[in-house]
Structure to design on (218 residues):
């Protein structure tokens, strides 16, 4: 049952994606490898996809899959080039890598832990779990400042444009995926209620406006 699978990791090349897919499959995690397709939950903030391939898995396997990747990466930590950019990071910057692990690849995340430990900093599982929990709270917050889109949605819907329906539906139903696989609504309740209203208005007015156009041509 792969219809409920969601994106776990994105990759710039098919080769990189395939390597991770094989690793996960060998550890009894089912995957789906696909080209990136603009998802419904892209926000109006201008986000764009930079990677071409993605691995989708069951949300229930996110934690296990992440653990597998981290364990596999540990074997590479002693093979870092002397000019690798992370080596020049300050302690504060390395802690930021740990906090925003979703923005970094697994290798950099594990290397940041290793470097901090070598610098005498105590990095334990409880601290890492606390950072991930804090990060989830931040990422789960609804996107702000949707007023321009709300106004545009009402305008297009009242004018009979299908664009209003699209804007309303997106504001009402859009979700984003957290690093732990959890799906949450992208916008707050007030903005989602506006989206629902815009969507309903659009679905009522759009066919009427279309009918008037057809009749006026005849």
């Amino acid at each position: 049952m792969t219809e409920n699978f969601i994106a776990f990791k994105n990759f710039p090349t098919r080769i990189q994606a395939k390597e991770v897919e094989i690793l996960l499959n060998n550890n009894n995690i089912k995957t789906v490898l696909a080209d990136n397709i603009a998802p419904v939950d892209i926000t109006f903030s201008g986000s764009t996809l930079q990677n071409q391939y993605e691995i989708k898995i069951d949300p229930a396997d996110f934690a296990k899959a992440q653990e597998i990747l981290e364990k596999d990466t540990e074997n590479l930590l002693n093979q870092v080039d002397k000019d690798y950019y992370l080596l020049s990071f300050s302690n504060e910057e390395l802690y930021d890598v740990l906090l925003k692990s979703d923005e970094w690849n697994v290798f950099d995340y594990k290397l940041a832990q290793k470097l901090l430990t070598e610098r005498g900093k105590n990095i334990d599982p409880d601290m890492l779990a606390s950072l991930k929990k804090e990060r989830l709270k931040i990422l789960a917050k609804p996107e702000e400042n949707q007023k321009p889109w709300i106004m545009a949605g009402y305008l297009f819907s009242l004018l009979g444009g299908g664009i209003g329906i699209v804007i309303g539906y997106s504001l009402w139903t859009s979700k984003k995926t957290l690093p732990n696989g959890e799906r949450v609504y992208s916008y707050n309740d007030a903005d989602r209620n506006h989206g629902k209203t815009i969507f309903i208005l659009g679905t009522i007015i759009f066919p009427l406006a279309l009918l008037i156009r057809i009749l006026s041509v005849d």
